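Good day; I would like, with your permission, to put a structural problem before you. A protein sequence and the structure tokens that stand for its backbone fold form the material at issue. The record follows directly beneath this note:
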Amino acid sequence: MPASQPGPPVSPPASPEAPDGEWLRVHPASPFVRGWVALAAIGYFFGRDIFERMLQGRPVLENGFAGRVPWLIAGGAIVLLIAVLGFILTWYFTKYQVSEGYVRVNTGFVFRQQRQARLDRVQAIDIVQPLLARIFGLAELKFEVADAGESAVRLAYLRMDDARQLRATILARAAGVVQSSGRPEGAAPEAPEYAVLSVPPSRLFGSLLLSEQSFLVVLGGIASVVLSAVTENRSFYFYLIPAVLGLAASYWQSFNKGYNFTAAISPDGIRLRYGLLDTQAQTLPPGRIQALKVVQPPLWRIFGWYRIQVNVAGYGAAGNNGEAASRTTLLPVGKLPDVMTMLSLVLPDPGTREPGKVFAAGLAGLDSDGGFVTTPRRGRLLAPLGWRRNGFAATDTALLIRSGRWWRQLVMVPHQRTQSIALHQGPLARRFRLVDLVLHTTAGPVQPRLIQADLDEARALFDEQSARARLARKRQTSEQWLAQLDPGQVERPRETIPTTTPVQEGQQDG
């Protein structure tokens, strides 16, 4: 694993840092990068007649049309002038500020709006580069905070170097790094990073071909062939057209979002980069991941592939939104060593002396492997395939929940991220003295749920997990992850990063 390779040198500030609290503007080209669709629509509206005449081979200017050309040009020029003036005013009234523990953004010249985010509540920072922004060397900065259903602050667009510098400064302040008295307004250097893994394009493409959607389309094709042969009606094939088109669009979206996926570790947190046309660079500060899920579909077991998804406050539920789904994906597809590496980054202290054994049992174990407590034997009638897999194990730092015999899942929730706990029991489960235990975290693709546990064991877990969560929150005295270090130690994490982690050491020992 390339974690021991030397990281890139610290990048110097792209430009002199503005005094703390000064209001700054985004790049002048930002409104045009955002509003190019409007300019294209104006050009199409006023030029479509000429374009259609050229395609049809007709004269561009006819007697009746020639008289309207000056008016069309004048009208187009006026509309274009109004649009450009609106762009300029939008840029002029868009300002941002980093001061007093907040990042603030003012927008609008008719309807004014100010959005702000507390630095100590920053959950993640993303640098996004759409294709047009990449051409101009610009980037958008997104700040995610807790209890925000959408991006709390969006800065679009900054020069790429300025965006990286601003991200480094905000992460340093969010971490509790206090600037030295000699440089109270100095720019924080960008923390070095160490690459830990990357996803080859061939593996990404193979994972899409072996996905659940492909399996359903193949089943639909087989059903269409059988029905067509039995009924001698060829219309069944037409039902496959929207499915194939939808599958192709899903393939492209997943491949575009997951292409060139790389993960790195730095004192700022976990850094993820991915994207083919539109690139994105995420930074997840330490401890901001609320819950994690490792999934293995049945066809992926042939190659030993897994996918990791996470809940992060501010990202919300992934749903069918391609952007949200990619942002909540910690690893699109990877093998067991990749999974263990990412788990070690999310939970540096696994809370057990045998992390490799425990996590391996959570991914592929049965019964009491790794210390898991599973569904009692009397529950096999309700879950004939999964009762030996459904179970839980608690370490000193996290609760692990596994489920699924064919679609394997391992859910991990750090104790301090448990917000509330509930017990659910239906009539059949009551008859067999079984119960489901649900842990509530922030919204996202991970829904921690212990399925069909023994009633007495679930009640005991309910009380024990409540106590663990309460104790873990007391130990976490600050959201600023570097604020509790001595001043002399603040710069040290930016210079060296351990090349091994507890999970990896346990995996090697095992």
